[in-house]
UniProtKB/TrEMBL annotation:
Its EC number is 3.2.1.22. It comes from Thermoanaerobacterium thermosaccharolyticum (strain ATCC 7956 / DSM 571 / NCIMB 9385 / NCA 3814 / NCTC 13789 / WDCM 00135 / 2032). It catalyses: Hydrolysis of terminal, non-reducing alpha-D-galactose residues in alpha-D-galactosides, including galactose oligosaccharides, galactomannans and galactolipids. This is Alpha-galactosidase. The active site is at D478, D548. InterPro entries: Aldolase_TIM, Alpga-gal_N_sf, Alpha-glycosidase_related, GH, Glyco_hydro_27/36_CS, Glyco_hydro_36, Glyco_hydro_36_C, Glyco_hydro_36_N. Keywords: Glycosidase, Hydrolase. Residues 651-726 form the Glycosyl hydrolase family 36 C-terminal domain. One of its GO terms (molecular function) is alpha-galactosidase activity. The keyword Hydrolase applies. It comes from the Bacteria.
């Protein structure tokens, strides 16, 4: 069993592939303490690590310094107000106005498999993949039960966690914070890595030293956000891509989050992660339960690269679902950068005709097909086809596209309403708002209150009616603003703070309905690009539009940062026009193709207007995508370059699981004058095996390729790229 309870030491030992995670119940009061997290160890009892024989002793030995004990003990799930002054995970508000709580071990159970989390996305696994431990703790004063849930994935270095809080009293209680996980590290000499950005500039990697005090990334925007991803990693100060201990944490959630590191007085470091307590509240009536979202913890003893590959394996096999999970996605052409709002049936068919000749397999009609939508100022919520633009209706257009042998996809922004819409005129109170206060507009739209069932039902019916009306094979689900003025006119005052989380649960419920009724539709999430690129969304859609910045060079950074956590198969990536619409940069068409290869691969430009030379390249690019897609989607990713540190080149390598094949994607960002060829050592191959360079037929050992490397030469100019394909001989 990968999870053991040792009665003698009262300790729990969780063993993932190369990882051990240990907790113990100590003292008569039954404190649950964190003992160890790191490389796998065989020992049953390492409780000495908690230093319980040093002052401040456990309370039963010396209650005089109870507070010192609470404030230094590595608590497994810290609570507020009783003497642990570091960041707590749980805080309440009682009828009397008290906020303190304290939990103690009561019981536990261990079982095969993994439970679902009610209403929330989560990783999954069967009885052969994983084992679960539930530890029930209680606050006897409040009559509150806290169930800590841990699942170990046996073949991966992954432990997942979540928390259930149950009100066993006969009075209401308000939860004002319920984080999902805490780990107290017995060291502070670590670096922290987080992913930051803005619209069109997501996933920029930031590395800094852990310092005394608090360092956090968070969102209070109602979605995970462009600005920060719900991820953090702690690592040895000298950890690199390939060496050193790295601990990755990722929250499976799509709303407000907190990911925080706190350097504490005795040079320990507390990590906490969960729903952002900022503006959070949840009323629990007697017998009600609150479930906090899942945190995925990954341990790597081989640097950041191995952490990423573990996240990728977990998400590809145990998070993403549906038909397209491990499958090649159709090569699409999206109308957004090709036409924006300016299209009609004829124009779309012209685009489709040309695209189909080039081998493109699906036309996606983006924003602008409904209501009176000719700009982003109106009509969100009115999911009725604009027949002035789509003459003959949607079915006619889809049928004509199908006749060309192409599939058809469509864009929605289901969570929004424009003030200038029939929906808003009929139901002005259906958006998130504070009565009497004028709401803050963003892109001239408000957010629909998806915490309300009648609003969800309307949205679902209007979206699904369209989907039922024609042969639609793909949906892009967009979400183009963040939440403000959070309130509604249905919940009582003491439940208003629940709206943030109820909104996210509402989105999940809608996506669940959609993917259940339309299991064959390929769903791509989007939030103005990567504003909601998180594991919660990946549970419903195997791919997410990574960024509105489609410039190949900007994308190198964005894709590099995103690959810290998310598999390449999840990253929406298109070849677009030049000068690039966001940044104005001009890059070769070929390079745009090489960069989009590390993603879902599609087009987003008017193929009727590009040069013949570029057009001729499209069938070859699609051939390249077909050839390497399986390797890229299902192989192991090794990052070789780092565009945040070196702006001369980016290089990634994909190695098949059996190590018989490798693809190196090399992009020269800025050329360097008077320089010899660049030597690039490869990674992840079999040392003793021999590999043939498919282009030159030269054969080298894995050892030579990994220690000596390959030489990159002959790339003249900036923004040039090249592929190297090696096959085992
Ligand atoms: C967002 C998306 C774009 C496009 C537009 C349409 O910005 O990220 O890809 O769909 O909305 O309005």
């Amino acid at each position: 069993m990968p999870i053991h309870y040792y009665e003698k030491s009262k300790s729990f030992k969780l063993d993932a592939k190369d990882t051990s995670y240990i907790m113990a119940v100590v003292d008569e009061e039954k404190f649950l303490g964190h003992v160890y997290f790191g490389e796998r160890i065989p020992d049953e009892d390492v409780n000495y690590l908690m230093r319980l024989d040093e002052p401040p002793y456990v309370p039963s030995k010396n209650n005089r310094d109870r507070m010192s004990f609470l404030d230094s003990f590595p608590t497994e799930y810290p609570t507020s107000g009783l003497g642990d002054f570091r960041e707590p995970c749980l805080k309440v508000l009682t009828k009397l106005g008290a906020t303190a709580c304290g939990i103690f071990y009561k019981s536990h159970k261990i079982y095969k498999g993994k439970p679902k989390l009610n209403g929330l996305p989560a990783t999954f696994g069967n009885e052969d993949d994983c084992t679960t431990l539930e530890i029930t703790c209680v606050d006897n004063h409040l009559n509150l039960e806290v169930i800590l849930i841990y699942t170990v994935f046996e073949d991966l270095d992954v432990i997942t966690r979540s928390v259930k809080v149950k009100n066993c009293s006969d009075e209401d209680i308000i939860l004002t914070r319920v984080l999902s996980a805490c780990v107290d590290f017995d060291r502070i000499d670590m670096d922290m890595v987080t992913l930051h950005g803005s619209w069109a500039r997501e996933f920029h990697v930031k590395r800094r030293k852990v310092e005394l005090g608090k360092q956090a990334v968070s969102s209070s925007r109602g979605e995970t956000s462009h600005q920060a991803n719900p991820f953090l990693a702690l690592m040895d100060r000298n950890a690199t891509e390939d060496f050193g201990e790295v601990y990755g944490f990722n929250l499976v959630y799509s709303g407000n989050f907190l990911a925080q590191v706190e350097g504490c007085q005795f040079d320990t470091t507390r990590v906490v992660m969960g729903i952002n307590p900022f503006d959070f509240g949840w009323k629990l009536e007697p017998q009600e339960e609150f479930v906090a979202p899942e945190v995925v913890m990954v341990y790597s003893n081989e640097g950041i690269g191995k952490m990423s590959r573990t996240f990728h394996d977990l998400y590809r096999n145990h998070l993403i679902r549906g038909e397209y999970k491990n499958k090649r996605r159709p090569v699409l052409i999206n109308s957004w950068e090709a036409a924006y709002f300016d299209f009609d049936t004829d124009k779309l068919l012209r685009l489709a005709r040309e695209a189909s000749k080039l081998g493109i397999e699906m036309l996606v009609m983006d924003d602008g097909w409904f209501g009176k939508r000719n700009s982003d100022n109106c009509s969100l919520g009115d999911w009725v086809v604009n027949e002035e633009k789509l003459k003959g209706g949607l079915k006619y257009l889809v049928d004509e596209v199908n006749k060309l042998g192409m599939k058809f996809g469509i864009w929605f922004e289901p969570e929004m309403v424009s003030p200038d819409s029939d929906l808003y005129r009929a139901h002005p109170d259906w958006c998130i708002h504070i009565d009497g206060r004028e709401g803050t507009l963003c892109r001239n739209q408000y957010v629909l209150d998806l915490s309300r069932k009648e609003v969800r039902d309307y949205v679902y019916e209007s979206v699904s009616n369209i989907l039922r009306s024609a042969n639609i094979k793909y949906v892009k689900w967009d979400m183009n603003r963040q939440l403000s003025d959070v309130g509604n006119c249905v919940l009582p005052p003491d439940r208003q703070r629940e709206i943030w989380h109820r909104y996210v649960l509402g989105v999940y419920e809608l996506m669940d309905r959609l993917t259940t009724e339309f299991p064959h539709i390929l769903l791509e999430n989007c939030s103005g690009g990567g504003g909601r690129f998180d594991p919660g969304m990946l549970y419903f859609s195997p791919q997410i539009w990574l960024s509105d910045d489609t410039d190949a060079i900007e994308r190198l950074k964005i894709q590099h940062g995103a690959s810290y956590v998310y598999p390449v198969s999840t990253m929406g990536a298109h070849i677009s026009d030049c000068p690039n619409h966001i940044i104005g940069r001009i890059t070769p068409f070929e390079t745009r193709g090489l960069v989009a290869l590390s993603g879902t691969f599609g087009y987003e430009l008017d193929v009727t207007k590009i040069s013949q030379e570029d057009k001729d390249m499209i069938p070859k690019q699609i051939e390249m995508y077909n050839k390497y897609n399986n390797l890229i989607y299902n192989g192991d990713l090794y990052r070789i370059g780092n565009p945040f540190e070196n702006i001369e080149f980016e290089c990634v390598e994909y190695v098949s699981k059996d190590k018989n094949e490798a693809l190196v994607v090399y992009i020269q960002i800025l050329n360097r004058s008077n320089y010899h060829s660049r030597r690039i050592p490869l990674k992840g191959l079999q040392k003793d095996a021999f590999y043939r360079n498919e282009e030159t037929n030269e054969v080298f050992s894995g050892s030579a390729l990994m220690n000596g490397g390959i030489l990159i030469k002959g790339l003249q100019g900036d923004f040039r790229g090249k592929l190297f394909h090696f096959v085992h001989v």
